[in-house]
Structure formats: structure tokens, C-alpha cells
Amino acid sequence: MPTKKTVLIIGAGSTIGQAVAQTMTEAGHNVICTHFHTEIKQGGAIRCDLRDFEQVKVLFDVLPKQIDILVTAAIPYLEASALDFEGYMAIRPFLDAHVYIMIEAAKRMRNGKIFNMLGQCVDRGLPSGPFYSGAFAFLHNLGHSLNAREGKQRKVSVLDLLLGPVETREWDGLSAEVVAEYRSKVSQFVPPQLVADTVRFWSEQPVMPTKLVLDAGYGYSG
User: Fold this and answer.
1) What is the pLDDT of residues 39-94, one digit of tens each?
2) What is the CATH number of domain 6-221?
3) Smallest Cα–Cα separation from 8: which of 34, 27, 26?
4) Structural domain boundaries of the chain?
5) 8 A C-beta contact, residue 45 and residue 59
6) Residue 84 in 3-state DSSP?
7) Bridge partner list, 71
8) What pLDDT score does 43 carry?
9) pLDDT tens digits for 143-168?
10) What is the rounded CA–CA span in Å between residue 144 and residue 122?
11) Which residues have C-beta within 8 Å of that of residue 59, sequence separation ≥ 6?
């Protein structure tokens, strides 16, 4: 039976976040969740607007002194043109919040684990979401940097899940053109439960990879 851990999930109101929260709760862990737009019934739910940096900082005033696992799943897909600076400004608060949370959570870890929900766009960008993919690329690079130093010190390990399209409610807010483009490229979307099961599996292993690709229609591979 795995040891009970304190798990912090950022963006537990998302479809992926909810699946991870439920799965980690069922595994017997102490799960603390942040949410904003979507109400959740999780016992340790904390309402936090990641666009308000003061709320993000206050979050750590009420969190436990030790965090064992952090799961980030709260950067929204914001459509934009690469030539529109306002698109960058819209994603920036979410990126700032994620960076701050990763740093502060890592400070409270001792051989802890961070799971970043990113996209395969970290390697090639997205014409319809350039700043969304750029934020992911920044977090991906930050994860590598943490593994290179803090990982060697056995303080924290970061696993970036590079996801193919996941079956989430987020698609309802995107243009029909973007949704059609994605659906034309894959045989199926990744089930959120597969993402959650992957987090649970690697959270229970003594050693985990630094990157894992979950491909729609093709299972997963490292």
C-alpha cells in the first residue's frame, strides 16, 4: 500500500484535473485542489484565480508545510495570432502563477514529485495558440533545469506529460476550425482517466522519467 502523500493539484476544475484529483483521492492521498470557474466537491478545494497573483501568493499561507506531489493542469488554450501581443499578455498571468507555484511547492518538498500537464506543442509550437505553446515550452525547460540540480539533490523530480489532444470540456470554447483540425489529425483523443492513471502510476515509483508522451490513438511512450 503506497504511503499517504500530500498532493496539490492546480486546476482541479479542469477535466484532467478532476480525473487526477479523484484518482489520487481513491489512492488514499491527502488531496488539495485549486479551482476557479468550475465548482468541485473535493474536500480540500481552494478557490483561486491564477490571474490574480496576490491570490496565488496567499495560497501558500494556507497550504501544509510539506508537499509531496504537485500536479499542474491550469493553463487554458487561448487562441491567438503570433503577431498579436495581447495574446501573450493574456497567457502571461497563468504562466507566472505556474512558475511561482512550482518554485514554492519545490521548496516544501523532500524527494517530492512534480507532474506538468503540457502538450506536444512544446517541440513545434501551435499556429492557433502560439503563446499557449510558448508557456508550455517555458515550463518544460524549467522542469529540465529543476531535474538537473534539485533532482540530483533528491529534493524534487519533474515529469512533463506531453499530451496529445485530450477529451476535455475545453474544446467547447474553441473555434470550430481549430477543433476540426485536431480531430482530423488523430484517430482518437486521449481519455482524461488515462492521464490520471499515468500520474498515479509514476507517483508510486521510486524513479520516474523526466518526459512522457501520451499520444492520441497510439497509447503512450517515453
Assistant:
1) 666 668 899 999 999 999 999 999 999 999 999 999 999 999 999 999 999 999 99
2) 3.40.50.720
3) 34
4) 6-221
5) no
6) coil
7) 9, 115
8) 61
9) 999 999 999 999 999 999 999 888 88
10) 13
11) 34, 46, 48, 101
pLDDT of residue 102: 97
Work out the mean pLDDT of the chain and round it to a whole number.
Answer: 90
Distance of alpha carbon 1 from alpha carbon 51, whole angstroms = 38
For the chain, how far is it from start to end, CA to CA, in angstroms?
26
Say if residue 30 is exposed, middle or buried (CB neighbours under 10 Å; 0-12, 13-18, 19+): middle
C-alpha 111: how far from chain center: 19
130-146 and 85-107 are packed helices; what angle lies between their axes, rounded to 10 degrees? 20
180 Cβ contact partners less than 8 Å away, ≥ 6 residues apart: none
- List CB contacts of 128: < 8 A, sequence separation 6 or more: 79, 80, 175, 177, 178, 181
According to DSSP, the β-strands at 219-221 and 211-215 are antiparallel
User: Residue 221 has which C-alpha cell?
Assistant: 511512450
Q: Enumerate residues 6+ apart whose C-beta is below 8 A from 201.
A: none
Residue 155, all three cell numbers:
529534493
Task: State the cell numbers at 144.
Answer: 529540465
Cell of 105: 511547492
